[in-house]
Amino acid sequence: MSKQKRVRINEDSLKNKEVAVLETNAKVEKTEDLNDGREWHNEAGEFDWAAYEATCPSQTRKPNPHIKTKKGDRVFSRESYAQELYDLMENHYESAGSSTIFTITVGETLEGTVNAIDTSWATIDVGYRELVFVDLSKESSISKSKLIPGESIQVQITGDQRTNSRGFIIGSVEAGVRSVITKELLAAVEDQTSAYVGNVVSMIQNGGYIVNVQGIECFMPGSLAGINKLVDFESIINQEIYVVPVSYSPEKGSIVVSHRKYLQALIPGKIEEISNSMDTVRSGNVTGSAKYGVFVEFEGCLTGMIHVNDLDPETLNLHKSREIKPGDPIQFKIKEVVSNTKITLTQVEQKEVVDHWKIISEKYTSFPVQTNGIVKSIKDYGVFLEVSEGVVGLLHVSEFPEGFDTNTIDKGDSITVQITRIDADSRKLFLKI
Length: 433
Prior knowledge:
The protein is an alpha+beta fold. The chain has helices at 31-35, 49-54, 82-96, 141-145, 173-191, 259-275, 313-320, 356-363, and strands at 3-10, 18-25, 74-75, 109-117, 121-125, 132-135, 152-159, 170-172, 196-204, 208-213, 216-221, 240-249, 254-258, 282-290, 293-298, 302-307, 329-339, 342-346, 369-379, 382-388, 391-396, 414-423, 428-432.
């Protein structure tokens, strides 16, 4: 009957190789000798090497003294082909070169493929000469869900043959995923253009929050929790928010994230949106007030101000009596968007602005034009006349007829004058009699 052979190389480097050649019959007729009377078969009737090797470390076996090996190598098999197999393996390593051989270091994270899973352990193939064993009792439910045979996964080496009593390589998927995410967040600190969903876990003393970003606990200062200072500091606890990694604190070993940075990135798009619907009645919340007006946060990331002259009577009375408090709801319209950081709001209906200078400049296109003007005021250097609604010009004394007595003119009188030129841009009107 044909035999099955399994080769296992112990230790973690070529400098100290231990070669163990184990052999079992297909029927495993003498399992009592190998496992002290215990059965090492799975449900399919196949010999379970993972279970066997977990309780049969190389330290308990004696090497074969008749096998010629290089210094540091040990062969435990006593089969007739042990020397031949050892020589074949040595030739393979020598021909393959160092590019195909690597060592495993405790603490490093490697990408591998899920090999097999049972109720207690999972094995990961990282391209090394041995599989990496993952203790499922130490993995979270999320990590366990990622263990799918044949799928790629990150695993961090937490122990090797020298650091654990079982004699094989131990790894952690949980730690591996955390390591990869941490590296990704640290890289995001450099460009500060990537946002991640984070859960605000708790509030800490001295103003700040613990935010869980894909399993990594990050720190968010209170000043970075919003565009404006939060009215209710506990309002965001257990909430999901978008945050941007902005710095790393080596002293605390934590990544600092900012919700404010994310909101600032939204401002240009929101500005364009509100500019196309200025007449829409909007809702917001008061963030503070001053003698000259009330500050309002709206659309999640925008802040504007309502001047006291633009407050409705009810709100104006509340403002005068200092009854307006941060967090109060308020309604308004957009009055003017000056810039991304300066937006004026209003609660009063805006009257249509009439440009009287534009009207008169379009009315009179050739000069001189004769018209009547009403005296608005009299000065030593001339008389100011209103020649059209909202349009006042100066009739300079140099334009008076010789011997003209300004004392004969009173405010409100009508004088016939000629318009010689209109400059609507500079709001100037040139007159003469």
